[in-house]
Design brief:
This protein has 16 helices and 16 strands. By secondary structure, it is an alpha/beta fold. It folds into three domains: 2-145, 3-Layer(aba) Sandwich (Rossmann fold); 176-422, Aldolase class I (TIM Barrel), CATH 3.20.20.70; 427-457, no CATH class. β13, α9 (276-284) and β14 form a beta-alpha-beta unit. α12 (341-353) runs parallel beside α14 (407-422). The structure holds iron/sulfur cluster (SF4). Residues 195, 197-199, 202, 240, 270, 293 line the site of iron/sulfur cluster.
Length: 457
C-alpha cells in the first residue's frame, strides 16, 4: 500500500531553536517498509510548510493511507492536518501521544477519522494495513480505536533489539537542530522505553511502566549508522531513564570509546540514580549535557508530585555532573498547587544555587490520562481552555488554578524565573563566549530576543 505519514506543520512559521526528527513516525515507517509497503514521511514541521503548501504536498503524495501524529499541547495542528488530508486518501489514521492519552474521545475532536491507534504501534500498525489490504475488518485488532469501540492495547514489545532502526532516510535530516548542541546536525534516538516511577504529572500511556532496554551492542550499531550514513554526530537520547542500568550505560560508553565514535550526546538523568564513576565514563564517551527533572526545591512539593527524590539528591547530582565536566539542564515546575508564591521563589533560588547551565521553568499543566489530571478535575482546579485542545494553544494561559495560584501570579512567577535565571550579566556573557557557529548565534539571539520581549510584556 502507498502510505504517507505526517508530522503536521507548525502553528506559526518562525525560527525555532530546536527541531528534532519525528522518531515515532520513522520507527513506524521502518516497520511498514519491512512489510513491503511504499512509505513516505512528510515532516511539515521541520520543512516549515504553510498550510497551502502542506495541502499541495499531501495531494501530490497520492497515498492510499495517511497517518497523522500528534501530541496534546499542539493537537490543534494535527486536527487541521487531518481535516486537510481527508479528501486525498482512502484511509485516514490518527496516532501518537495524544490519542494514547485521550482514547476514543479523538473521534469527537475529529469526525474525519477512519481509525485511531494507541500505544506502541510498530507491530499493530502493519497489522491494520494488512487487514485493510485483505478487505478484512480491522476493528478488533489490538491498539485500534474506531468510532464504535476501543480495543485492548497492543502488547508492549518484549525485545526492543528486534525493532528495525528508524527510517531516517525518509527524513529531511539536514534540517534538525538544537541550539544547545555543539554541532550543526542533530538527531534523536531511543535506547529504552517505559519508566517504573510514578510522577503524578507524567503521561506514560504509550510506553508503560515497565522499563525495557535495547542492548548496548544494538544501540552502538545505530550510533554507527547515524554517524556514518547520515553524517550526524550530535545525538539527543530521548529515553525517560537512560541511566537506570549502570551496567548498560558502562557497556555503551566503553563501546563508543572502543569504536572511536566521535559523537556528542545529551540524555535525561534522574537525580537519585547517578554517580561519579558513571558520569566520568559518560564524559569520556562524549556526553555533553544531562537534563534532570528537579521540579521543586520544596520537599512537600516533590511529595505532591510523587517525584521520589529529594532536594539534597539534586544538589549532589548537579555537583557531581559539574565535576565530571558535563553541562547540566534542570527542569523546574512552578505553580504546584500545594506550594505558595514564596515556595516557588525558593525553586528559582534553587536553580541558581545548583548552578545549572540551563533551566527550563514550566507552569504545572495536567495532561489527560495522568493521576494529576484526575485529581485536578476532582478538586475543581482544572480549567478547560479550548475544547479542541486540552492544553492552551499558546501555553500562555494556565489551566490549573486554586487558592494559591491565580492567573496573574502564575504569569508573574514564570516571568520572574526567566528574568532571574537568564538575564544575569555573567550568564549572558558566558552564552556569548560559548557560541560555536553562525546558526547557534541565530538560534540563541532569536531565543534571547523572544525572552526579553516576553519577560517585559
Ligand atoms: S517524569 Fe520521568 S521519572 Fe517521573 S514517571 Fe515520568 S518518565 Fe518516569
Amino acid at each position: 500500500m502507498k502510505i504517507l505519514l505526517i508530522q503536521p506543520p507548525p502553528r506559526r512559521i518562525e525560527y525555532e531553536g530546536i527541531i528534532v526528527p519525528p522518531l515515532g513516525l520513522a520507527y513506524l515507517a521502518a516497520a511498514l517498509r519491512g512489510d513491503g509497503h511504499d512509505v513516505q514521511i512528510l515532516d511539515a514541521f521541520a520543512l516549515r510548510l504553510d498550510w497551502d503548501t502542506f495541502e499541495a504536498r499531501v495531494a501530490g503524495a497520492t497515498a492510499e493511507l495517511i497517518g497523522v501524529t500528534g501530541m496534546t499541547p499542539i493537537v490543534d495542528t494535527s486536527l487541521r492536518a487531518l481535516e486537510i488530508a481527508r479528501p486525498y486518501c482512502k484511509y485516514l489514521v490518527f496516532g501518537g501521544a495524544h490519542v494514547s492519552a485521550v482514547g476514543q474521545k479523538v473521534f469527537q475532536q475529529t469526525p474525519e477519522l477512519d481509525f485511531a491507534m494507541y500505544g506502541e504501534c510498530e507491530a499493530a500498525f502493519p497489522q491494520l494495513v494488512r487487514a485493510l489490504e485483505n478487505h478484512e475488518d480491522p476493528s478488533n485488532l489490538p491498539g485500534v480505536i474506531t468510532r464504535e469501540k476501543m480495543n485492548k492495547p497492543c502488547e508492549l514489545l518484549p525485545d526492543l533489539d528486534e525493532l528495525p532502526f528508524p527510517a531516517r532516510d525518509l527524513l529531511p535530516n539536514e534540517l534538525y537542530r538544537y541550539a544547545l548542541s555543539r554541532r550543526e546536525r542533530v538527531t534523536t534516538m531511543f535506547t529504552s522505553r517505559g519508566c517504573p516511577y510514578n510522577c503524578v504529572f507524567c503521561d506514560k500511556s504509550t510506553f508503560g511502566s515497565k522499563w525495557r532496554a535495547r542492548s548496548a551492542e544494538n544501540i552502538l550499531a545505530e550510533v554507527e549508522e547515524i554517524a556514518g550514513r547520515y553524517d550526524t554526530r550530535s545525538i539527543i537520547i530521548y529515553d525517560d531513564l537512560f541511566t537506570v542500568d549502570k551496567k548498560r550505560v558502562k557497556e555503551f560508553c566503553e563501546g563508543v570509546v572502543r569504536r572511536g565514535l566521535k559523537i556528542d550526546w545529551k540524555c535525561e538523568g534522574r537525580v537519585n540514580i547517578i554517580d561519579g564513576e558513571m558520569l566520568a565514563l559518560m564524559k569520556r564517551a562524549g556526553c555533553s549535557m544531562i537534563a534532570y527533572g528537579v521540579e521543586s526545591a520544596n520537599q512537600h512539593g516533590l511529595d505532591y508530585l510523587n517525584k521520589g527524590a529529594t532536594p539534597d539528591q539534586a544538589r549532589e547530582a548537579f555537583a557531581a555532573t559539574r565535576k565530571a565536566g558535563i553541562r547540566t539542564m534542570g527542569y523546574f515546575i512552578l505553580g504546584i498547587p500545594v506550594e505558595t508564591y514564596e515556595d516557588a521563589r525558593k525553586t528559582i533560588n534553587f536553580a541558581l544555587e545548583l548552578k545549572a547551565d540551563y533551566a527550563q521553568f514550566s507552569i504545572l499543566s495536567p495532561f489527560p490520562n495522568t493521576p494529576m489530571y484526575e485529581d485536578a478535575v476532582k478538586k475543581g482546579w482544572y480549567r478547560e481552555v479550548d475544547a479542541q485542545n486540552p492544553m492552551d494553544k499558546d501555553l500562555k494561559r494556565p489551566v490549573m488554578l486554586n487558592e494559591n495560584w491565580d492567573e496573574e501570579k502564575l504569569r508573574n512567577i514564570l516571568r520572574e524565573a526567566h528574568r532571574r535565571f537568564y538575564l544575569r550579566p555573567g550568564r549572558l556573557l558566558r552564552e556569548v563566549f560559548s557560541l560555536r557557529s553562525p546558526s547557534q548565534l541565530k538560534s540563541k539571539l532569536s531565543a534571547g530576543l523572544r525572552l526579553l520581549k516576553w519577560s517585559h510584556e
